[in-house]
């Protein structure tokens, strides 16, 4: 914030743009179709106002939908084609810290200067033409329109677009003739909007298919695959099934994104890139699925350090002892992705121990991973590792599906959480930008966090019946931390009134327990991931 002549804080030009962008956020549920601004047909009016019809038709687009892995697939695809020498544009969602993360040019977030120029160009024209019949576009639709303007004006060689939600009625689906489409792994998510079955969800995702345009997908559940094949047949779309990447093709290098599941996304990215190259005249035929080698540029693109914050990301605390407090961030929020997240976390903390500690005591089934004592080669004990869960999810999610998957998958790898911390998100849904964050409110409604805590305690105590506090058999205590803010705690979990108070508790615990190394899995919500990143990177 700048300072006005009277000493008051004056918003910067960038903050003014974010305030204008925030004005487009509606409080309606995304499943509410009553908002006129959400009518898909209005997008054609917006394109005419912004004179984008022709520029979009000139873009050579890769369009990707899916439940899990579409952001990773788009990131790999962009990196591959950039390493092949093309000027790239990448549009993804959501952002975690800065809205400019959504728009990348040649692998780098768009500059603040360019963002402001394109933002106001679009916003002012739409505002000038706004009427009852053509209201201002909603938040995500404006961002998609802005992406089209940026990529067209910057004359990118290839634009990679990640669908925001669903496919058929997503703002990115104004594209009439992409070069190639992709569908990443499908699963249950956003069911209040997309439908309660995998078939219904697959039908929405297949809404991005265009007549005669090749579509690629990864192995899917039978119900979902049948629908994809049916939709492809109706539109004369060549639908190709892509297998996961064989790690041997990387010549000993590691993928740029962590996690075993990334080999599925990498395989799809290779096929998308190859098909794009072939259809744009840069390659005679796409690389065959069972190729025995990859071009050097593909390998570099897949193994380069790529940026995808909040997905299988490991960040030491930016505090006194960063090696003693490490955050493992993954924005998993569906049952399937929660299982993948748990597997990644379990393997990561074990791999971390193997890399840094040459030997340790074996872990038997009766002992938690946080009881593990690590030893130096000389036999002297090093710091114990303690696993903590920091969790929140939107109330439309079902914690009875998310938390059991997380706990069981970790347990199958011998990983057990000493404590689960439940917190509300810091960011608000009707404002964009860190300058808009509210002050900590001691009166914040924690009823959802208490509900999450009860689910966790039931799981920990093996109580299948669920129910209220009495049925769990847990003893809930009212504790007070150093900031005199109430915390409801029991043996296995605690509810904090704010994320900063939970981070403070973790940092205080590190100072008090200098023989312990805290490994904190943060998951359940990308909003929570973004809030944590803002706090620990200060």
From TrEMBL:
The keyword Magnesium applies. NCBIfam families: folC. It comes from Prunus persica (Peach). Catalyzes conversion of folates to polyglutamate derivatives allowing concentration of folate compounds in the cell and the intracellular retention of these cofactors, which are important substrates for most of the folate-dependent enzymes that are involved in one-carbon transfer reactions involved in purine, pyrimidine and amino acid synthesis. It comes from the Eukaryota. Pathway: Cofactor biosynthesis; tetrahydrofolylpolyglutamate biosynthesis. Mg(2+) binds at residues 93, 162, 190. One of its GO terms (biological process) is tetrahydrofolylpolyglutamate biosynthetic process. This is Folylpolyglutamate synthase. GO terms for molecular function: ATP binding; metal ion binding; tetrahydrofolylpolyglutamate synthase activity. Its EC number is 6.3.2.17. It catalyses: (6S)-5,6,7,8-tetrahydrofolyl-(gamma-L-Glu)(n) + L-glutamate + ATP = (6S)-5,6,7,8-tetrahydrofolyl-(gamma-L-Glu)(n+1) + ADP + phosphate + H(+). Belongs to the folylpolyglutamate synthase family. Its cofactor is a monovalent cation.
């Amino acid at each position: 914030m700048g300072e006005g002549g009277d000493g008051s804080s004056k918003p910067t030009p960038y903050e003014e743009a974010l305030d204008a962008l925030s004005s487009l956020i509606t409080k309606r549920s995304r499943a509410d179709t009553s908002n006129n601004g959400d009518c898909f047909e209005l997008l054609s009016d917006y394109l005419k106002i912004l004179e984008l019809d022709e520029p979009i038709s000139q873009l050579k687009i890769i369009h990707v939908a899916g439940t899990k892995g579409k952001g990773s697939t788009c990131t790999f695809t962009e990196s591959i084609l950039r390493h092949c020498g093309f000027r790239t544009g990448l549009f993804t969602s959501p952002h975690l810290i800065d809205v400019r993360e959504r728009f990348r040019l040649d692998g780098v977030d768009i500059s603040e200067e360019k963002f402001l120029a394109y933002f106001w160009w679009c916003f002012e024209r739409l505002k000038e033409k706004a009427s009852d019949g053509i209201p201002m576009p909603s938040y995500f639709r404006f961002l998609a329109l802005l992406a089209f303007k940026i990529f067209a004006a910057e004359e990118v060689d290839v634009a990679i677009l990640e669908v925001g939600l669903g496919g058929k009625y997503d703002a990115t689906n104004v594209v009439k003739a992409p070069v190639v489409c992709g569908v990443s792994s499908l699963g249950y998510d956003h069911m209040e909007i997309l439908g309660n079955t995998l078939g219904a969800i697959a039908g929405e995702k297949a809404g991005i298919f265009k007549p005669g345009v090749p579509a690629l997908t990864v192995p899917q559940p039978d119900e979902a695959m049948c629908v994809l094949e049916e939709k492809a047949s109706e539109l004369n779309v060549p639908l190709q099934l892509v297998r996961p990447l064989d790690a041997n093709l990387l010549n000993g290098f590691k993928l740029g994104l962590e996690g075993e599941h990334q080999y599925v996304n990498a395989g799809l990215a290779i096929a998308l890139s190859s098909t794009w190259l072939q259809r744009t005249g840069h390659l005679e035929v796409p690389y065959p699925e069972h190729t025995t080698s990859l071009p050097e540029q593909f390998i570099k693109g897949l193994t380069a350090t790529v940026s995808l914050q909040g997905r299988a990301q490991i960040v030491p605390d930016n505090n006194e002892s960063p090696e003693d407090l490490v955050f493992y961030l993954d924005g998993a929020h569906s049952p399937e992705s929660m299982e993948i997240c748990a597997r990644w976390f379990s393997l990561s903390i074990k791999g971390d121990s193997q890399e840094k500690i040459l030997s340790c005591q074996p872990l038997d089934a009766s002992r938690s991973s946080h009881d593990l004592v690590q030893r130096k080669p000389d036999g002297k004990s090093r710091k114990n590792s303690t696993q903590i869960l920091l969790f929140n999810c939107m109330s439309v999610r079902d914690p009875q599906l998310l938390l059991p998957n997380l706990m069981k998958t970790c347990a199958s790898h011998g990983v057990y959480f000493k404590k689960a911390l439940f917190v509300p998100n810091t960011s608000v849904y009707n404002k964009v930008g860190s300058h808009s964050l509210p002050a900590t409110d001691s009166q914040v409604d924690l009823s959802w966090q208490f509900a999450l805590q009860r689910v966790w305690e039931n799981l920990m105590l093996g109580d299948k019946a669920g129910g209220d506090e009495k049925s769990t058999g847990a003893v809930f205590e009212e504790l007070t931390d150093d900031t005199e803010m109430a915390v409801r705690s029991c043996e296995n979990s605690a509810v904090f009134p704010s994320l900063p108070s939970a981070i403070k508790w973790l940092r205080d615990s590190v100072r008090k327990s200098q023989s312990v190394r805290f490994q904190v899995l943060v998951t359940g919500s990308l909003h929570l991931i973004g809030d944590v990143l803002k706090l620990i990177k200060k």
